[in-house]
Amino acid sequence: MVNVSYSYFDGDPSTTAYINGATVVNLGEGIKTGDPRLVTREADLPIPTIANGAKYPASEWAKFANINAHLAGLKYYDENMGELVSPGGTKSDAIDAGDPASDYSKEPKPNGGRVNMGVWGNTPYAAMTSSVRGLQISVW
Length: 140
What we know:
By secondary structure, the protein is an all-beta fold. It has strands spanning 2-4, 8-9, 16-19, 23-27, 32-33, 38-39, 70-71, 76-77, 84-85, 131-132, 135-136.
């Protein structure tokens, strides 16, 4: 049995999900569903984008391990280019949505006082937040 919290699932899981029809996964707090709104440079994509909500074949998922994907909507420092990037688009609701008990001190300011979900959470490459303690600010 696996317990999962503060993660994204594609689809609408109930209180219990199954992997390969056998392994039980208990979903805890902070579960989000749908599209986490990731962005990446087109050159980093290992295979062409498939339109209209189609799924990649299971055999292709290993190619995604090294994608330079970040959360959409706010600025972040690109780890490859060493530049501040502003991807635009609709802000990902995975920003400032990680476990409240997790460290976020390595995230660039403004960081919202909470870790981001995903691989870049609590790193210098995490997406910045547009609010600090309820105040709206501009991120340059």
